[in-house]
Amino acid sequence: MELLTKCIFELVGTLVLILLGDGVVACSTLKKSKGLGAGWVVITLGWGFAVMCGVFIAGPYSGAHLNPAVTLGLAAAGKFPWAEVLPYICAQMVGGFLGALLVYLFYKDHFDATEDADTKLGIFCTMPAISNRWRNFFCEALASWLLVFVILVFATEGNTADLGMGSLGAFPVTMLIMSIGMSLGGATGYAINPARDLSPRLAHAILPIAGKRDSGWSYSWIPVAGPIVGGLLAAVCFILLFR
Description:
Structural class: mainly alpha
Radius of gyration: 17 Å
CATH superfamily: Glycerol uptake facilitator protein
CATH architecture: Up-down Bundle
Strand content: under 5%
Order of helices and strands: HHHHHHHHHH
């Protein structure tokens, strides 16, 4: 399959992932939303189902990485060609930005009705519950290590030509995302995906959101570097344990 086609589906899959993932946060936290106050369990379930939808869309065509940390981890494990890494990541980042833009347009009236600037930022990207930069980095790296390592372990039982989350079937990955969110999400909001955090954070910075705060750029390196380091370490652990 042509690389362009794969990248298009990575873009669309990531767009849907962010539309539904950031969307459930908006639904649960913005004023006058019918879902206001739904809570953490609904948010983690929503993110899991968001990944499921993105996987169903992109899986048959690109393998449904939907995450630069997954793409880099699979490449480091020898399961994905390095020549396709950068195009995949570019597609994922664009998809993340467009998904966040659609969430803003969908909930524009509710953004206007919400006064708290931190709540508005939290729809687009993650911020730590307790600011401790190196602990926050460790949390993101460990959660991302678990994500990529379990994806690789899943795939040992049924590899496909385009290895990624889509090769595993949507439902095991859905359960994995929910489990990570419920168990390891409380400290940093479990970005575990640079395209889920950096691209929407950029959208927050650019969009004319009423009463918004700064976009938390001093923290922004953590949900990018943490997942990448975790994904690469997962590849190393997989190679050591399974080869």
